[in-house]
Specification:
The complex is a heterodimer of chains A (124) and B (251). With 124 residues, chain A is α+β, with helices and mostly antiparallel strands. Chain A contains three helices and five strands. In chain A, α1 runs antiparallel to α2 and α2 runs antiparallel to α3. With 251 residues, chain B is an all-alpha fold. Chain B has three domains: 101 residues, Four Helix Bundle (Hemerythrin (Met), subunit A), CATH 1.20.120; 49 residues, Arc Repressor Mutant, subunit A (Orthogonal Bundle); 67 residues, Winged helix-like DNA-binding domain superfamily/Winged helix DNA-binding domain (Arc Repressor Mutant, subunit A). Helix content of chain B is 74%, strand content 0%. The chains are: A alpha+beta (124), B mainly alpha (251).
Amino acid sequence: MDREIILKLPLCSNNLLCARLTTSAVCSLLNLNVDDSEDLKVCVNEACLLIMGQNYKVVRLVYNLGDTLTIGVYGEGVCEHPHTGIGEQERELCVQLLNSLVDKVEYNKVGGIIESIMLIKRII
Amino acid sequence: MQRAATSYEENIYDNDLALFREYSRTKDIALRNKLIEKYLYLAEIMAKKFVNKGVEYDDLFQVSSLALIKAIDRFDVKKGVKFSTFATPSILGEIKNYFRDKSRLIKPGRKNNALIQKIHKAKEEFKNKYNRAPNAEELARILKTDVDSIIEAMEYNSSVLSLDSTIDDSDTSLYEVIPDTENVFEKFDDLTVLKQGLDSLSPLEREVIEKRFFKSMSQSELAREMNVSQMFISRLERKIIGKLKNMFEII
């Protein structure tokens, strides 16, 4: 049976720890091994950084636990004080990391701005 | 404006491809160094992404830099992908391997590593079902492998004990009960010689030896305390050790 776990965080570097820990807990629920858990923690962190670079105020993480683990990373609200963000080179590397570490990544863009990122991992 | 930026990026991309083409043709080290310098940022960012996981940044940077060099050597421009697209998974793989190898003192190899993880999972499931731990034969049956492989993997997975850990619930530490293979009388002899040697040193030399080797102070800490340079302490230490060595040879 599919389960859904939702976490909402104000976007700042310090809060990303909560995202990583929640990801770790979700991986544990799915009996994923240490390597896969570490990969997913890196991915969630990178996806949050990409969303942070788009100047959102809050990130909403939706974990869908089924035959595949789908993690939706949604940006919400507008930040009044722009984040320092990440440079172009690092942004490119974030994208490459996501492509390397999960089975599928989907970007939902509106007018060139990323609104959400879907990370899809098959559970064997 | 957008068009200008795109054409600038395309230009850089084309220049890089030309460099890679030239390098794969000539294998010129100067060209490779140029490419390394150009893409070292990849190694740097990747190393930074994995800090605070129990490995020093310098070590990670070294691993990712070596992976970058390997990636430059293996990059094939004919495949039609950007170098960063090709290099990122390679560097990532090397970093992950490094973490995997570093996390154990005894390195079980990739195959055994996978088996260890399967054993863990199978053990848990068995315990939940039968309320007892499975034996090696049962694990071998569940995981469709032979008993020897199971035992080997379990051996690899046994943890390393600290000499300071206590035996059962007592206060006795392991190092107190492990027999010393050295001859105790020889040790007394060594101590007597060492004492004679130390007595022959000047007060300053004795102070340095005492603080460096009995109080475990670093050269820098000692230099700060004595208000001298670390280089001075280093030279003095070398001199004293030479003196003591000579004395032991004579005795």
